[in-house]
C-alpha cells in the first residue's frame, strides 16, 4: 500500500516518522509542495493522498488527481470549506478530515487572547518596552466580571466554556444544535440577538459555512453592548472586517482578537519582515493597541500537529483498504 502526502512541513516530520515506524507495511512518499493541478501527478501509483493546505481543492485539482487514479483524499486539518464538493462527488472521492485534533489548542489560544485583551497586555508590553513602568492608564478588566457569549458549542467551544468557568466568568452560549449537557446547565440563550444584547465579550467557534458568512456584520455589531470585546479564532469569513474596523473606530468594539482573516491565504504563514503588507487592512489592525492579530496559529501545538498527521494517515490507510474511517466526511 502506498500513501503520497502533500505540503509536509518540517514540524510534521517527527510525527510522520513516528507513524511510519508504527506502520512499516505502508510505503509513504511526500513533498512539501501543495496539491495543485501541476503536482497531482506526483501521487500517481498511490492508493491515497494526504493533504493539508488553505489553497482551494478546485475542480481542476481534483480532476488532475482523479486522472492519475487517486480518489482517496485525507485532509490533515478540520476545515473542508476549500473543497469543490461538486467535483469531488463527480469523481466519487472518499474524503476524510481531522475534526478533533486538539480542541484545547484552539480553545486555549482564544481564551489566552481574550484574557490579554481584557488586561490590555499589548499596550502594557509596549509601555514596558519603552521603559515606562507606570500603571495608569492601562487598567485591566477581570474575567469573572464579564458575561462571555460563546457562539458555537462543538468540541472547541465546550473546552473554551470550561476555561471560562475556571476564570469565574458568566457564560452564555448559542448554537443551532445545542449540547444536552450545556442545555441542562441552562447556558443557552435562544437567539444570537439575545447573546449580543447580554455579552460583554464574544468568542466564536462556528464553521465558515456559507450560512455563517459575515455573521458578525454591521447589523450584528449594532446589537452588541457598547465596548464589546470580540475574539475570533474560528474562520475569517465569519467577520465582515470592514464592519469590525468601523466598530473599532467608533469605540463600539473596545478590543478585538483575530487568529483568522477572510483574506489570509497568501498573507498568513509568510514572512513579511522588512516588507509592506500587501493588505492595508491587516497593517491597520496590527498597528492598533486594542487589536491582537495572530496568523492562524491557534491550532499550532505539538499535540495538534501529531494528531493531524496520525489521524489523517490512519484514515488514508482505511480508505485504501476499502474501509470507511470514522472521520470520513459525509457529503
Ligand atoms: C483547520 O484545521 O481547519 C484549521 O483551521 C487549522 C489549519 C490552519 C491547519
Automatic annotation (TrEMBL):
GO MF annotations, alphabetized: D-lactate dehydrogenase (NAD+) activity; NAD binding
> What protein family is recorded?
Belongs to the D-isomer specific 2-hydroxyacid dehydrogenase family.
Q: What is the lineage of its organism?
A: Bacteria, Bacillati, Bacillota, Bacilli, Lactobacillales
Species name: Leuconostoc falkenbergense
Transmembrane segment boundaries: none
Name recorded for this polypeptide: D-2-hydroxyacid dehydrogenase
Any idea which UniProt keywords this protein has?
A: NAD, Oxidoreductase
Q: Where is the D-isomer specific 2-hydroxyacid dehydrogenase catalytic domain?
A: 8-329
Q: Which residues form the D-isomer specific 2-hydroxyacid dehydrogenase NAD-binding domain?
A: 114-298
Amino acid at each position: 500500500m502506498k500513501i503520497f502526502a502533500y505540503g509536509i512541513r518540517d514540524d510534521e516530520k517527527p510525527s510522520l516518522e513516528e507513524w511510519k515506524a508504527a506502520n512499516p507495511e505502508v510505503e509513504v512518499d511526500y513533498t512539501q509542495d501543495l496539491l495543485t493541478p501541476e503536482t497531482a501527478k506526483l501521487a500517481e501509483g498511490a492508493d491515497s493522498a494526504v493533504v493539508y493546505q488553505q489553497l482551494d481543492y478546485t475542480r481542476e485539482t481534483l480532476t488532475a488527481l482523479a486522472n492519475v487514479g487517486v480518489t482517496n483524499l485525507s485532509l490533515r486539518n478540520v476545515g473542508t470549506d476549500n473543497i469543490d464538493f461538486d467535483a469531488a462527488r463527480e469523481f466519487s472521492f472518499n474524503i476524510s478530515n481531522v475534526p478533533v485534533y486538539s480542541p484545547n489548542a484552539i480553545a486555549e489560544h482564544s481564551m489566552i487572547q481574550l484574557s490579554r485583551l481584557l488586561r490590555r497586555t499589548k499596550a502594557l508590553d509596549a509601555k514596558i518596552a519603552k521603559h515606562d513602568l507606570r500603571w495608569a492608564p492601562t487598567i485591566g478588566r477581570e474575567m469573572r466580571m464579564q458575561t462571555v457569549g460563546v457562539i458555537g458549542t462543538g468540541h472547541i467551544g465546550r473546552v473554551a466554556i470550561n476555561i471560562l468557568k475556571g476564570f469565574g466568568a458568566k457564560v452564555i452560549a448559542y448554537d443551532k444544535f445545542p449540547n444536552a449537557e450545556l442545555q441542562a446547565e441552562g447556558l443557552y440563550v435562544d437567539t444570537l440577538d439575545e447573546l449580543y444584547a447580554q455579552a460583554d465579550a464574544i468568542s466564536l467557534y462556528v464553521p465558515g459555512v456559507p450560512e455563517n458568512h459575515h455573521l458578525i456584520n454591521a447589523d450584528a455589531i449594532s446589537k452588541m453592548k457598547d465596548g464589546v470585546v470580540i475574539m475570533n479564532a474560528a474562520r475569517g469569513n465569519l467577520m465582515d472586517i470592514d464592519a469590525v474596523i468601523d466598530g473599532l473606530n467608533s469605540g463600539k468594539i473596545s478590543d478585538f482578537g483575530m487568529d483568522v482573516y477572510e483574506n489570509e491565504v497568501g498573507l498568513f504563514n509568510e514572512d513579511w519582515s522588512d516588507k509592506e503588507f500587501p493588505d492595508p487592512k491587516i497593517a491597520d489592525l496590527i498597528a492598533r493597541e486594542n487589536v491582537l492579530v495572530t496568523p492562524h496559529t491557534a491550532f499550532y501545538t505539538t499535540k495538534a500537529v501529531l494528531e493531524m498527521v496520525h489521524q489523517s494517515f490512519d484514515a488514508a490507510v482505511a480508505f485504501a483498504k476499502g474501509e470507511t474511517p470514522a472521520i470520513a466526511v459525509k457529503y
